[in-house]
Design brief:
With 245 residues, this protein is of the alpha/beta class. 31% of the residues lie in helices and 17% in strands. The chain starts with a strand and ends in an 11-residue tail after the last strand. Bound molecules: 2-phosphoglycolic acid (PGA).
């Protein structure tokens, strides 16, 4: 695991964008796994800048997103479909046919999850998976206790996640209770991982991920077992690391 500590959110985002851009230049038809949340927003802004300023080409890139809420249509402003198109895809020259985001409205969710896994295999596997991390060490919607071998599946969201999400919806009844998420095992199959974290709120999770024992109670700790993982954090997120990097 390569740990890179940057000064702040902007520097974290720039370094992450350099890594993604380098992989896309080296292999224009690469497969990139994308994440939602506040953490990758700076990275996405920088990728858009590189696309506009330097013509960074996404026309042959295949994408797979980590997760999506069950029951939200793609046009809902809290869906991860909406997030990805608004914050990244519509600003790049991605080919719609190569974009994959779990379908929250799928009628047969188990069949959809199996199909999603098959599509990743058909695409040749994910070359580079971008990851955020929860303060509790979750990756995607794999909350503490998730099997470290899990595959794409439906997960019940925890009470804390429901509470954290309530502010984005008009009524509590609208807050999604389930999500489709790649499993920890699915994420570990990516050829390369790029995990980002910013802010002191992530410092315990980053200390566990980089220096703690591997445990399903901090799902991100499994990243220690990956052959090619880079963790890019700002100083605040790195503040509880004991080793010198
Ligand atoms: P955040 O979420 O980027 O909004 O902090 C990350 C996550 O919960 O995985």
């Amino acid at each position: 695991m390569l740990v890179q500590i940057t000064e702040n959110f902007e520097a974290m985002s720039k370094l992450a964008a350099e890594i993604v851009a380098e992989r896309v230049r080296r292999k224009p038809d690469c497969v990139v796994g994308f994440a939602t949340g506040s953490t990758p927003l700076g990275l996405y802004k920088e990728l858009i800048r590189l696309h506009r300023a330097e013509g960074l080409d996404f026309s042959k890139v295949t994408t797979f997103n980590l997760d999506e809420y069950v029951g939200l249509p793609p046009e809902h402003d809290q869906s991860y479909h909406y997030f990805m198109w608004e914050n990244l895809f519509k600003h790049l020259n991605v080919d719609r046919r190569f974009v994959h985001i779990p379908m929250g409205m799928a009628k047969d969710i188990d069949a959809f999850c199996a199909w999603y896994e098959e599509k990743m295999v058909e695409a040749g596997g994910i070359d580079l998976q971008i990851l955020g991390i929860g303060a509790n060490g979750h990756i995607a919607f794999n909350e503490p206790g998730s099997s470290l071998g899990s595959r794409t599946r439906i997960k019940t969201l925890t009470g804390t996640t429901l509470e954290a999400n309530a502010r984005f919806f008009k009524t509590p009844a609208e807050v999604p209770k389930y999500a489709i998420t790649m499993g920890v095992g699915t994420i570990m199959d990516a050829k390369e991982l790029l995990l980002l974290a910013s802010g002191v709120g992530k410092s315990d999770a980053i200390a566990a991920t980089c220096e703690g024992p591997i445990t399903a109670m901090w799902p991100a700790t499994i990243v220690q077992m990956h052959r090619s993982a880079t963790v890019v954090v700002d100083q605040a997120a790195a503040s509880k690391l004991k080793m010198k990097y």
